[in-house]
Design goal:
The chain contains ten helices and no strands. The chain is mainly α and 183 residues long. It has two domains: 58 residues, Homeodomain-like (Arc Repressor Mutant, subunit A), CATH 1.10.10; 107 residues, no CATH class. The longest helix is centred in the last third of the chain and has 24 residues. The chain is elongated and about 60 Å long.
């Protein structure tokens, strides 16, 4: 993603365009979203879209690059040993991040979300989780670790989809405690 513009008006306009695209993605495929529709959804002039982005695809790609980098940074804040000991602080941070980016994740998990990006994000989480599981269960072979990571990430993904569909009613703190069986 290009460096963040410092001008408040530029940041605001880009956010309006991003939010407009995400709202449209909840109702139709990216290929069916026109610049005219996007401009209307963001309440900006059509020409304004081109000042900031090439097209709706460019907006989504830049959003996805930023999200992927930010999720990677969340993982980087915790060592595998810390996560093996207690994943709750990490989970709480991830969940709070998802609330902050709720529009993006609702569009991503929706019928018209970018499945390739979702697979990339899923793979990142599976890879990082396998390193944590290797510390927790050192006797497991690589294949078993990989399958366990796939299983765990898939379970979390299902829970997170439902949580988002329900409007994130439970707090990130409550949701982070689910793996421990506390509620």
């Amino acid at each position: 993603m290009p460096p963040q513009p410092t001008d408040r008006r530029v940041r605001r306009t880009r956010k309006l365009l991003q939010d407009g695209l995400l709202k449209l993605l909840c109702t139709k495929p990216l290929d069916d979203i026109t610049v005219k529709e996007l401009a209307e959804a963001a309440d900006v002039a059509r020409a304004t879209v081109y000042v900031h982005y090439r097209d709706p695809v460019d907006i989504l790609q830049q959003l996805e690059q930023a999200i992927y980098a930010e999720v990677g940074q969340l993982w980087d804040r915790y060592s595998p040993a810390q996560l093996a000991e207690d994943p709750s602080p990490f989970l709480q941070e991830v969940l709070a991040y998802m609330v902050e980016r709720q529009g993006f994740f609702q569009a991503l998990f929706g019928a018209y979300g970018d499945k390739a990006f979702l697979n990339d994000l899923r793979s990142l989480c599976q890879e990082r989780l396998a390193a944590v599981l290797a510390l927790r269960e050192p006797r497991l072979k690589d294949a078993a670790l990989s399958y366990r990571a796939i299983f765990t990430v898939g379970g979390y993904e299902t829970v997170l989809r439902r949580w988002l569909e329900d409007g994130c009613r439970d707090s990130s703190q409550v949701m982070a405690l689910l793996p421990k069986g506390k509620r």
